Amino acid sequence: MSELDGLSLPSVAVHAGRTDLTDLGVHAVPIDLSTTAPLPDVSEARDILDGLIEGRPLPHGASTIYRRAWNPTVARFEQAVAALEGHVPGGTPLDVEGVAFASGMAATHAVILGRVAAGFPHVIAVRPLYGGTDAILETGLLGTTVTYAEPHEIGDHVTDRTGLVVLETPSNPTLELRDIADIVRQAGDVPVMIDNTFASPVLQQPLRHGATYSVHSATKYLGGHGDAMGGVVVASPEVAQSLRPIRTIVGGVMDPFTAYLMLRGIGTLLVRMREQQRSAGEIARWLADQPAVARVFYPGLPGADPDGLIGPQMYGPGAMLAFEMAGGFGAAEKTCRGLRLITHAVSLGGIDTLIEHPASLTHRVVTESAQPHEALLRISVGLEDPADLIADLDQALRLATS
How far are the Cα atoms of 235, 248, 254, 262, 342 from residue 13, in angstroms, in the given order? Predict the structure, then answer.
């Protein structure tokens, strides 16, 4: 039984990965920067390495052999994410483990590569996806063939060579919600990978609904401050064990200081998301009333959740939104240029508000027919006062349409 069992999600977020610190006589998480470790005798070291090669996790205090295979600070971050993803309100936590990587794309790469290596090169994907994920599938860089399908068509495209179903919910950049349980049902025995970056584990836990992999660009909400890059996959112990050897061989490992920053970010994740989500709702409703705006994409708006997934699947609509300018690309470009408080930059999930033009930036590598609308702008809402953000958007929209 874990010390976290029975705690509410806010308490889990604060204490996950830290429960042994009192016994160690420290209060802050220790950062182990060693690239190598003193070894016990040769036979014991060989047995430890065999376990690492097989992907088994190590207990704290064990010899880590070499950082590319295992690091105790990174392991703490993995435990914290797994505790959030496996949390079941009022119930027994799921038995899940985290595997951390150097970036979100390194995490996605490992999942896809593992399925291809197992002899299943066919992937079914639901668009829209993050541009990097879309590109790695469509280019066939990892030996994949891909079928892009609508959410209700998944079952029609499964073959004996299908190894993975890939989707995001909410989707990037237009925030569509996908029914994870229905996708899993259609996929049958085929593993389902959910990019959970936009929601974070405090708003959505895909494994509770049958997904095999929950993948995050930890650079975003988990870190939360735009100063650390990483990725993480949460899966069952058996699946996590299959990913660790890929990480070790390919080398896409998270560094210890990044893991420390990520773990620090997780402690405030829930309170950050609550405030950012509240502000995003205010901004989305304001944008929906602006004549310069043709359309707003936000799961919390009326009609944006036709399947009723907010509540049963996702605990809230999140802090990401997008909108199309009525004046087309020119108006979108002028809006970005006219903002003073909101920063024009890619990425998301930090404490400050960011805006970007997906067709030119995050989704530039996507095939032209699948690129977002040229007038679409995406906003990651931060922790500023929403009144200040609305005032900044108001003056920028006025400039763009004058």
Answer: 18, 28, 20, 12, 28
In sign, the C-alpha dihedral spanning 243, 171, 211, 199 is positive
Residue 52 · residue 65 · CB < 8 Å: yes
- Encode burial over 343-355: b for 16+ CB neighbours within 10 A, e otherwise: beeebbbbeebbb
Q: Active-site residues: which are they? A: 68, 130, 195, 220
Domain segments of the chain as ranges: 9-267, 269-401
For residue 354, the model assigns a pLDDT of: 98
CB 15 within 8 A of CB 7: yes
Chosen CATH of 9-267 out of 3.40.640.10, 3.40.50.261, 1.10.287.3510, 3.40.228.10: 3.40.640.10
Q: Residue 151, Cβ neighbours under 10 Å: how many?
A: 17
pLDDT at res. 1: 53
Which pLDDT score is estimated for 76?
96
pLDDT on residue 126 = 98
What is residue 216's three-state secondary structure?
strand
> How far is residue 77's CA from residue 115's CA, in Å, rounded to a whole number?
25
Q: How far is CA 278 from CA 169, 271, 295, in A?
A: 19, 11, 20
| In contact, 82 and 222? CB cutoff 8 Å | no
Sign for the pseudo-dihedral over CA of 243, 245, 246, 247: positive
Angstrom distances, CA of residue 39 to CA of 18, 105, 249, 300: 26, 33, 21, 54
CA dist 350 → 5, 135, 386 (Å)? 29, 25, 15
Using 70 as the pLDDT threshold, list the residues of the chain that sit under it: 1, 60-61
The domain made up of 269-401 has a fold known as Aspartate Aminotransferase, domain 1 (3.90.1150)
Say if 9-267 and 269-401 have the same CATH topology.
no
Helix or strand holding residue 117 (H, E): helix 104-117
Distance separating alpha carbons of residues 286 and 283, to the nearest angstrom: 5
